[in-house]
Structure formats: structure tokens, C-alpha cells
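Weekly structure sync, notes
Attendees: PL (lead), two postdocs, one rotation student
Agenda item 3: pending single-chain targets
PL asked that the sequence for the first pending target be pasted directly into the notes so everyone works from the same version. It is reproduced below exactly as submitted, 131 residues in total.
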Amino acid sequence: MSDRTLRLLSASIGGVIALQGLWAFLAPRSFFDALATFEPYNAHFLRDIGSFQMGIGVAGVVGALRTRAVVVGLAGLATFQTVHVISHVIDRDAGGRPGLDIPALGALAALTVVALVIAVRQDRDDPGRTT
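Predicted structure, written out during the meeting:
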């Protein structure tokens, strides 16, 4: 299979997974009713699942566009971490420990985004970089 075909598959599959994640995140009840009929219904859990799926999907898409594993990994992690924080903000009254969870998850998300920016800048400055 050619490199072009593999990249197209990676981007296509990643895109589908990311869209499923977006659906679970934005419309957890609809996602539950149509695809994830595992009782009991839990909107926050489905939003979290959506954030995971978006991160995995973004990694698939970025993997089709970039060859450096650290950029691909950080893109997926940054997507997951950022959307996961948003999930906890949306559901701050649903349980958990929002006073601890949101700042801690926010700090991880920020750190991951900073690392991604650094990795992308390294690629821009040295396109042949492999490490």
C-alpha cells in the first residue's frame, strides 16, 4: 500500500473518530440513544468519551499530515486534554471535585498545548528534524 493511501486512510478514519467524539461531546443524549445504549445514561461520562475520541481522531488526522511522532502524539493529547477540561467545566455541578479537577486538568492541558507549540515550531525551523 502506498504512503499516500495510508495517509488518506489515517486522515479519513481519524476524521470519522473525531466527528463521533464531537457528537458524543455536544449531544451526549443523542449519542447514547443512537450508539452507546449502555445503561445508565451519564452525560458527563459520554462527554469525556467524546473528548478521548476527538483526541484519537485528531492524532489520526495529524498523523496523515506530519511524520514526527511527538507532534502527532501531542496534537492528540492537547485535543483530548483541552476538551476534557471543557467537559468538566460544563458538568461542574454534576459531581466530582471541580475546585481541584478543573485547575489540575487545565494545567495539564496548558502544558500539553505549550509542548505541542514547541514541537511544531521545531518542525517549522528544521523541517528535516526526526527527533
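Discussion points:
- The radius of gyration is 16 Å.
- The chain has one domain: 3-125.
Action: rotation student to compare against the earlier draft before next sync.
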